[in-house]
Fold:
Amino acid sequence: MEFIRNFPLFTIVLSLFSGVLCMLLPARKARNYTLVYECILMGLVSAVLFYTVRTGQSFTYVMGEFPAPWGNEIRAGILEALIALVFLVIMFVSLIAGWHFLTTDIDGSKINLYFTLVNLLTAALMAIIWTNDIFTGYVFLEILTLTSCGILIVRELGRTTLAAVRYMIMNLLGSGLFLMGVVLLYDITGQLLMVPMQETVSVISHDPREMMTLVLSLMILTIGLSIKSGLFPFHFWMPDTYGWATPSSAAILSSLVSKAYIFLLFKIYFRCIGIGIFEQMPISRVLFILGLGGMFFGSVSALLAANIDRMIAFSSAAQIGYIFMGIGLGGIEGYTAAMFHIIAHSLTKSLLFLTAPRLAEVSGSSLLFGRITGSALKRRDAGLFFLAGSLSMIGIPLFAGFSSKLLFAFAAVSSGSERKWLLTMIMLAVSAVLNALYFIRTLIRIYTLDRSGSSGKRTTFKDAATGVVIGDTADQAAVQSKGFQADYVIPCAVLVAANVFLGLFSWVVVGLIERGLSMFG
Amino acid sequence: MRMKRKTGTEPLKNAFRKWLDGDTDVFSELPEAARIHDISREEAKEDRKRVDRMIDASASAGAVVRAERKGFRTFYNIVAVISCAALIAMLLFLVGNLPRYGEENERTVEVVTRYVEKGLEETGAVNIVAGMILDYRAFDTLGESHVLFTALICVMILLRQDRRNMTSKVDSYASLRNDEYFDPSGDIIMRSVGMLLGSCIFLYGFYILMNGQNSPGGGFSGGAVMGSGLIIFSAAFGMKSVDRYFSFKLFSGLTFTALAFYSFAKGYVFFTGANGLENHIPKGEPGALLSGGLILPLDIAVGLVVACTMFGFYSLFRRGNIGSDTNLTDQL
Structure:
């Protein structure tokens, strides 16, 4: 066996070890160590991606000496490696670009604990991406849940604690339903490993009574994971969670954590159930409808939001809707579009979450629309990045958002069902218009010269009640005098570049995803 | 209400000294702190009204009030009841359709039979459950042992004292002193019972831990019992006596060593297993103390982590720290 095949195992064990190690290190060392080891992980994952592209098939790696169905397994293919690589890049970038806020938002004695959590979160992401066993998925999903709550409360404001409690309750409800679904699936099929489970499922798919129980168990599991990833109508925890977290955490939570849940769900559909059987189930139609609902209602809520972080968070709900709509559309085109949108949206949303607080910083530490007037003129780099992110979210050509909308439209046309085709097209148009409405409004606001001179005002109680305090030690004068900040500009430029690459050369990634899907099941 | 604590540290120091000598309650010397409790009824009412007005004025609260007026609460209750009933009905239906308990289910046979019939031979553990979780499905357990650690880190973030969750240094110092003041360790009954119970429980936990491969038990349960033994000790003899040997350094060092050992030992087994190499770990005589290959060392590692975590939770909840924080006591 080639040595490269061990790399997925190394990524998991190394991340777990790094998590525990960071507890012992002082703050700055923990950060530097984390950045270095994330680079190593990226190297390992790129090697896996390269290897799977070259060999053209996925490989299974037995965890220990016992093969399936007795022991655990992990499996790596093009799609897994691609998603893992994108996740690692975003993680790396968010940690660098958010460092400035980490030092002001987190107490100095707890920064190393933050990196401990981030590394454990990376381990969980890697394990969920590579796993070929549904119960391993559950265990690492628990780690993901706990660490994501941890990187939220680390800011230690009353509001973050409140948001974390709500996030925790929703998440635990989701985990509980997911566990119930796993147990039921195990009881029906007698397997925990995904491939043997699919074999049993294809045997029982001829018995309508058995199919009924299977569909219901899968539905419980699906509800669990869609609560966790924030599918409409379960998206109301999003604005508080993303809006109050420190920027790095917001980027990680919205771009990686909720996407990891979707990826796991997708893997279960594809590998445990089998896509042919899944497409005949009513679940795919329900997901399609809920996805459409998310696209509409998420955008409407974003339109009504009074502060920029909540707006971005609600727009996340709409984008999650897109992804689920793609899964509901079905067909290889639909899944390709969904996977592509996971990548495109992760890149864009992390950029927006890392940029918004920079705009707030020059406008009295406030994220309210009333306050951020003219902030892009005071902070030109942040303004440009926000512009790029917004254009991508709206779906302007050149950017990734356009490619993914095009892919969705294409998937709708080739789905074969006229009703789905029509609904998708209408909702894509409506959602694009709504997206454009609220993002262009924001852009106009941040590029309007502020004449009222209110930007220097202190934050009032009312601001605090509606959600607006950022970086409480931010000193106005010091912030404005700062010039070029390499640790913010370069990572965000990387994100924009990746975004434009996805927009211009989407066929590269789409080709990879299609090849990945063909070896995924 | 924000309290001003700029009264200078001199009166505070005197207050602490007095209080340490058993003269008086420290808070009686702090007029600001005492005010919270001694505020007159009318004043308190006014304060509350002011806060209510501020909240009512905010946009989000207004929306809530309007929604409540429109009968949102009734609607919410009805929907909650309906969805719960639907979930219950669905689950009952599902359970009714599952294979019956005790009946032979030909689908589950394949996996279970191998665990039961070959478990002893392949893992060297008499306790098949231990063999299953630490050998057949060891990857899951590797994650599981880190779940507990993650929970501990989250609690540490939330409860460990720092500049953000303590309004002042005096505050954190006071809470530390408070803990010592209310420590029941002087009590003779506590001490003698603690001695008896604590040592028995500790010994029992150790027994469970060491025999995980041969009898029900293992790392998680043994560690939990040992942790509760530690908690009883610290309750009976005071945090100070536990601090003497259980510092934060020891705590983090132990946790780190145990978890790192776990990750690498299991990583090594996965690596050799997947690559078809010999892993050179002796299985030992089934039933003996040193048997089951890696199961015993892994159990000990997990047990240490669990015991440390249990005690860590207790210590964090009780006084917001693990081990004595020398920085804190030096500050004043």
